[in-house]
Amino acid sequence: MLRPSYPIETERLTLRPFQEGDLESLYAYQSLPEVARFLYWEPRSLDESRSFLKQKMGASGIEKEGDWLVLAVVWRETGDLIGEVNLQWRSREHRQGEIGYIFNPGYHGRGFATEAAEVVLRLGFEGLDLHRVCGRLDGRNAASARVLERLGMRREAHLVQNEIVKGEWSDEVVYAMLRQEWDARPAS
């Protein structure tokens, strides 16, 4: 079980559960074709974003295998909600988890995704005592691959044309890190 104390602060960011007032900022990036490009969903309408916001608001802790922790990422300098990070507890028996992130493109290229994703990686290893955490992405998403590499995750697999996504065959790339690799990382 994982129930972090909120807010979680990094050098530049505040991570917290989603709130009702986040709808406009959430919709601002969920509605963009470039955000949905490498994800399973199409750009979302305001009503779809409202529905997903309710789900995200209920994902502030992990109680059982399969649960997701989803956190809003706020840039403290401006107070803007700039994206989200998540952690899923994939297997209790095998102590496995998965991380993910989605950011508004207006904030790409500043290291925010790496800074925020490091928090959920830490929560997975140190909060849930996971043995292995992975990150999965569309093989064409080079920017997301760079985030996982900056976190120190290693590329484990490249699955060629393993899924049909949005009507076309898509590759999937899997990165992962073991707890012992997390513990051996240089302090950041």
UniProtKB/TrEMBL annotation:
It comes from Actinomadura chokoriensis. This is GNAT family N-acetyltransferase. PROSITE patterns: GNAT. InterPro entries: Acyl_CoA_acyltransferase, GNAT_dom, N-acetyltransferase. SUPFAM superfamilies: Acyl-CoA N-acyltransferases (Nat) (SSF55729). Residues 13-180 form the N-acetyltransferase domain.
